[in-house]
Amino acid sequence: MFKSCFILKQKRYFKVVLLAFLLLLSSHSVIFSAEVQSAIQSLSDDIAQIAEKVGPAVVNIDIVRYVETSPFRFRDPIFEWFFEQREEFRRRIPQRGAGSGFIVDQKGYILTNEHVVSRAEEIKVTLSDGREFKGKVVGSDITTDMAIVKIEANNLPVVELGDSDKLRVGEIVIAIGNPYGLEKTVTMGVVSAKGRNISAGTEGHEYRNLIQTDTAINPGNSGGPLLNTKGEVIGINTAIIPYAQGIGFAIPINVAKRNLDDLITLGKVRRAWLGVYIQEVTPEIAEQFNLDKAEGVLIADVISGSPAEESGLSRGDIILSVNNRTVNKPEELQDTIRALQIGDKATLKVKRDGKEISFVVKIGEMPTDETLSTKDKVFTEQTGLKVEEVTPEIARKAGLNRVTGLIVTEVIPGSSADDMGLRNGDIILEANRQEVSTIATWEDIINKLKPGDTVLLLIYRNNRTYYVPLKIAQLE
Fold this sequence. Notes:
By secondary structure, the chain is an alpha+beta fold. The chain folds into four domains: 56-150, Beta Barrel (Thrombin, subunit H); 164-264, Trypsin-like serine proteases (Thrombin, subunit H), CATH 2.40.10; 272-365, PDZ domain (Pdz3 Domain, Roll); 378-471, Roll (Pdz3 Domain), CATH 2.30.42. It is 25% helix and 36% strand. It has ten helices and 28 strands. The strands form five sheets. The chain has a seven-stranded antiparallel β-sheet with strand order 5-4-1-2-3-7-6. Strands 22, 23, 24, 25, 26, 27 and 28 form a seven-stranded antiparallel β-sheet that branches. Strand 25 (427-431) and strand 26 form a beta hairpin. The protein is elongated and about 75 Å long.
């Protein structure tokens, strides 16, 4: 009996304590909820103010492109081709497109995406107050997907450009644009990631170092601003992945800030240039170059007349650092060089034949246009290749300045050579850093290797060279 009463009292006591705890929690929840509501209201007010402040500087861009086509359609491709070649049967058909942009100068300069205005013959710019102007592209750059459109107007509202380098993952961002023609649409999200590289467009152009965001970005947003909570532009909305949910991309505004003057005054972007073809140092390549570890960036070729050649850099050098900044990936070296100004002098630490050497290179400006009797076939099972010696005719067609090397005439599907991307027409200049111009030399090098060993090939293709590490296969 006593035990039962004790248990009953325990239960009542527990209920009282539980009730008191719930009341205390409830009172704190009310306070917490009020704080949250206040914070949400403050954020809401800030976003509304940003939209009101920046909105007038965001524009709608409508373009018209014309494509030539034949009004006739035939099942027979020969007839189709015939009518397409005849000028009297071709018709110019308008294709319409739309995007966004934002005013960066009161004199009527508008920043947008290159792909928004590419090949446009007619451009109409509509301001937030409804005024319409004829636009003209005064500068564009396909590499960074940026363009400047000029309208004849003055005293226009302009955006404030921020610092995209200070952007943090998780930070709240806002997009303003004209998706699907819906003017001045405001969306909000966060920075999902930085430094993204993606391929986009029909030609699969690679865009580098983009800001990824889950802010809703749809067709028509391209070229519009991505803003931080201060109302500063920190990116240019540039690409989406079709059918993806919550994945959009923007060009960091610091890239645009470096190029604005060139786009406006020169109509193009001038780029710092070293003048080398480069590739990653893999463990296999490191072994062939007697490196303790895979580090640095390998120079696969040096362009004639380039700053690199003038400074004494050569094929096979491994760049370890630029101005004391370590580089271990081709992208790191490219970004480091691009951050320099044309005419700057850069100190490159290079490893050559096991020794570290320093070179001072005067950074140049990247050129606008890139320049640059058959014997029995021999089948080498260990490499998965068939090769033959290069003749004067082959050398002439390939653009070699002398008769040298072995040309690849067949690649075995599924072989190591196939896996490494070798193909017919490639010319092998070196094997294990030894020049090969005869079948005898080639066989002598290959036959000394064991299954599992790596042979380092220097491949010539499209007027440039590559180092390719190739695993020696086991013969059955």
